[in-house]
Write the structure tokens for this entry.
Amino acid sequence: MKGVWPFVVLTAAVRLAVFPWNQNVAGDAVARTWLALDWAAAPHWMTSFQDLTAQFGPLHLMLVGAASWLIPEPMLVGRLVSLGFGVATVLPLYALAARLSGEKGAAAAATAFAVWGLHVQVSTTAASEALCLWCALHACDGLARWFDGGARRWLGWAALSLSLGCAVRYDLWLWIPLLTVSVALRRGVRWAVVFGAGAASFPTLWMLGNWLAVGDPLAPLRYIDDFHRQWAQAELAAWGPVWFRLGTAAFWPACALLSLSPVAAWWGGRGLWRALRTRREWAWLVALVVVPAALSSLRGAVLTSFVPLARFTVKELALLVVLVGPGVERSRWGLWVAALWTVGWATASVTLGGAGEQLAPLSAVSRNPARLHATLADLRTRTASAAQGVLVLDADPRGYDELQLKAYGGLPRERVANLRAKNFDLVLAAGEWRWLVKFDGGSLPVEPTPEGDLVFRGVRFVPSPATPNSPRVYLRAQP
């Protein structure tokens, strides 16, 4: 494992290079941060869906909350947690790749991983994917060591890592039956029961907690499933059945091509095929790539009940990176071609991701979208020297842009009355309403005047000339 340290340095250097520029945008990063801070104010062991977790797994929230005791900057603490786990992930990835295809293959995989734009993004925002992938790859590495004759502690480490990952993200729960079956086929039913019981320890306790709290052990999963069903129907109506089905069917391979680069995706796909054909003992790793991707495509393209997101592909694409090794091992120039092309592709993705929003979910860049820049600048200017006053914030009818305005608008969240939040009226009562932000089509109950002003609950607001377009800033009218 001595050969891994140059790649640890490379992985850290790439992420640190973009860290000062990135912001909490994707991956529910802002919402996760606030939930974590709420937990940090009253720390306890989270036990259910209703216990400050919303639809998220509890482990990430508690880790970020605990880190906030040392790093009190809200929009920084979660990003630093992700950075630490993101860089550390190259260790199990390199070990797994070296076991599969030797040092040469591990070097190819680690290089592709270091400059992989999507992982750079999740490593520099307060999303949960960096922590989840760290757990997932440790589970794979531990299981691979045990399959190769390692001590039984590696089986225990794999089960523990997988269970911890399941406490971060629910999509990792699918790995429990897949890997349990793999253990049964490789080592017998007795060891499969041991592994399955250990890996399912968190899901079992979490389902028990939800059953006691809300009467439904699968309440978080049903909530997420219902959300995606409704979202899928909206997207189906917007795109039409043909384009929606084609898009969801092609989503996983498209993410591999655009995120890893066509060359790295090709070598990874070639390695996957080679492992399936000539190294049957690694079929379990192939299954972890293929089965979740196939099920997601089935839910989207056939059942039209799921809308895939780029960050949902992180685990499968990371394993495809591991399989780059078998893809290049018989090619004299494969390693260097893959490395150079991938570095160039990653560099281009940074530029393109920063220039437009279409590639942003796959890019190393994570910045607030251009449509919010004028509003954010106006808000920060207006609130910079304001020691008091409350911002009245409309709900974005097409997404959740109000979260970004609340996070980066310059005011502490205790002084932002967000219409979508449960404490809207409570925050309104905390001080004078000095600013208001309105989205076109938003549901904030305001009355327009002939002069172009807005009246909210009897208080008149005049439009700011700095934001002529939506979302627009309004200022409390002087008496």
About this structure: The chain has a mean pLDDT of 91. The CA atoms of residues 116 and 260 lie 6 Å apart. The chain is about 60% helix and 5% strand. The beta strands are 390-393, 416-418, 433-438, 447-448, 454-456, 459-463, 472-476.
